[in-house]
Amino acid sequence: MTSDLKASAAALPIAVRTRSLLADKRTRPLVLLGLVLVVFSVVRVATGANELTSAGTLEAALALSIPLGLAGLGGLWAERAGVVNIGLEGMMIMGTWGAGWAGSTYGPWQGLAAGVAFGAIGGLMHAVATVTFGVDHIVSGVAINLLGLGITQFLAVQVLHNPTQSGEIPSMGTFTVPLLPGWFASIGAHHWFAVSDLANVLFAIVDKPAYFTVMAVALLPISYFVLWRTAFGLRLRACGEAPYAAETLGVNVYKYKYLAVIASGALAGFGGAFLAIWSGFYHDGQTQGYGFIGLAAMIFGNWRPAGLAVGAGLFGYTNGLQLRSPPAVHALLLVLVIALAAYSAWLLYRRRWTSGGISAVCTLLVLWWFLKTHELEQHIVSATPYVTTLLVLALASQRLRPPAADGIPYRRGQGK
């Protein structure tokens, strides 16, 4: 009996087994990551663009993804409690200045603490305006962005005596994982299909990671656990879904909104501090709109930590690739062709003929663009991360479901 069952399982078509793995929530992320790795390996081999999955590109992608992920995580905390926070950019700016001032004066760990504290102060201001005084969340967020920029420029002149940048911030330090980096680097240098690409991914993770990088990455599963696996997280999310119902159960909605928005600011401040410490100093305009892009990554992730990480990683990867190897960006067109072809097939399988037909036409147009060109113009290469963000947001817009009470003013005792 057992041997018959094993034989039947082995005879199942690969597509059927893959579909069953995708249906299982426990194995779905690994299967999807495996498929993505195979696609990039195919494109790398076909085009010879080894920078697509080189260790340097992946290390740059990780470093560029973290501040975006922290900003998006800050937005996630606030919006899960029902407060829209478009002031993430201003809170990140405050975090960069706090890290630049304290980091160059006292040391990197003090700089990190100051960046988090300055971001939390920005979150507190947003909470006072929106939760206590009922100011429109968008208006308050815009005000926080303007205040963050103005306050830091003023403090830079008064405290740093330099309106554009701080002194040098010492390195926070890294730690070494024994043996593994050498093994992975050796395997990656052979450019074997899929195997070398996976080795480069692992090398980027274990190659002398900085302490604050590990801390930042750890905040993602910690946030998931707190928000989805604790009574505190359940009450906080209830404030964003049905605050008046939570009120009837004895939940202090004001308190949870305050805590969520302050945590949101602290996480955004961490993202700003990461930028300053990673660069080695604070300078004016350092965030470059990362707060807004982090918010877009959160929306793409459907207000969930795992999806947020994918959105931040996608932007960080395309940004790192265009900085390290602009010619390799041309190979991304072939990746886009494969993705659009798969999306078209899925739409046609679901009998959505109009959407599937439009997607198929787009696939052919991008394929024609790839075949007719050998490299992309510099302005297109520079815009790649932002175009990618807009594209994935457009594709993901049909499945988004924000918290039901997100952005809706709350007043205790006024629920119907």
Overview of this protein structure:
The protein has 416 residues and is mostly helical. It has two domains: 28-52 and 326-399, no CATH class; 55-174 and 209-324, ABC transporter involved in vitamin B12 uptake, BtuC. It contains 18 helices and no strands. It has helices at 2-11, 14-23, 28-47, 55-80, 88-105, 108-132, 137-160, 180-188, 195-206, 211-229, 231-241, 243-248, 253-279, 290-300, 305-324, 332-349, 353-372, 378-396. Mean pLDDT is 88; it is low at 1-12.
The tally of structural domains comes to 2
Instruction: State the secondary-structure class.
Output: mainly alpha
Alpha plus pi helix count: 18
What is the typical, i.e. mean, pLDDT?
88
| Radius of gyration over C-alpha positions, nearest whole angstrom | 23 Å
Uncertain residue ranges: 1-12
CATH class value of the largest domain: Mainly Alpha
The main sheet comes to:
none
